[in-house]
C-alpha cells in the first residue's frame, strides 16, 4: 500500500518553492539517506540540493554545481550534506566516484544524474523533475519518504 505521507508528486511554481520543498524534506532525513535527482539541465536539481542544505542548517549559498567527478561535502548543519553531479560521466560504479565512502553513512547524499550509475541504489528516495514551463516544475517522488538510512554499497 502506498505510504500516505508520500506526496506522489508536487508542482512547484518557482525556484524558491522547490528549495522550500527540499528544505522540508531535509528536516526528516536521517544519516545515510540517499536522494537521487533526475531530470534535464535546468530542471531544478541543484536548486533542490540548495533546499536540502538550508533544511539541514547549512549555508545554501555554498551549494553549486559540483566539479566534475567530485563529491562536495557541506558541513556545519544537523547532518553533513554530500553532493555529487555525475552529468559528465558515462556509466560509473558508485565506488569510482567515492559514493560508497564510509563518511556518506554519516550524512545525506544527494546525487544529480543518478542514471549514470551502473547499479540501482536500493532504498534511495528518487525525485524526478520535469520542466513544465519557465517557472513551473513537476516533481515526482518514488521510494521511501523520507529516504531511510542505508548505504550506497
Ligand atoms: N519551479 C522551479 N524550481 C526550480 N528551478 C526553477 C523553477 N522555475 C524556474 N527555475 C529555474 O530553473 C533553473 C534550475 O537550475 P538548476 O537547479 O541548476 O537545474 P539543474 O541542476 O537541474 O540543471 C534555475 O535557473 C531556476 O531559477
Ligand atoms: Mg545541477
Structure summarized in a few sentences:
The protein is an alpha/beta fold and about 150 residues long. The protein contains two helices and seven strands.
What does this structure look like?
This protein is of the alpha/beta class. The protein has a single domain, classed as Rossmann fold (3-Layer(aba) Sandwich), CATH 3.40.50.300. It is built from two helices and seven strands, in the order βαβαβββββ. It has a seven-stranded mixed sheet with strand order 1-7-6-2-5-4-3, with helices on one face. A hairpin with a 6-residue loop joins strand 3 and strand 4. The protein is globular and about 35 Å long. The two termini are about 25 Å apart. Adenosine-5'-diphosphate (ADP) binds next to helix 1, helix 2 and strand 7.
Strand order of the largest sheet: 1-7-6-2-5-4-3
What binds here, in terms of ligands, is: adenosine-5'-diphosphate, magnesium ion
Distance between the termini: 27 Å
CATH superfamily: P-loop containing nucleotide triphosphate hydrolases
**Main sheet: strands, sense, barrel:** 7 strands, mixed
Q: According to CATH, what is the class?
A: Alpha Beta
CATH topology name: Rossmann fold
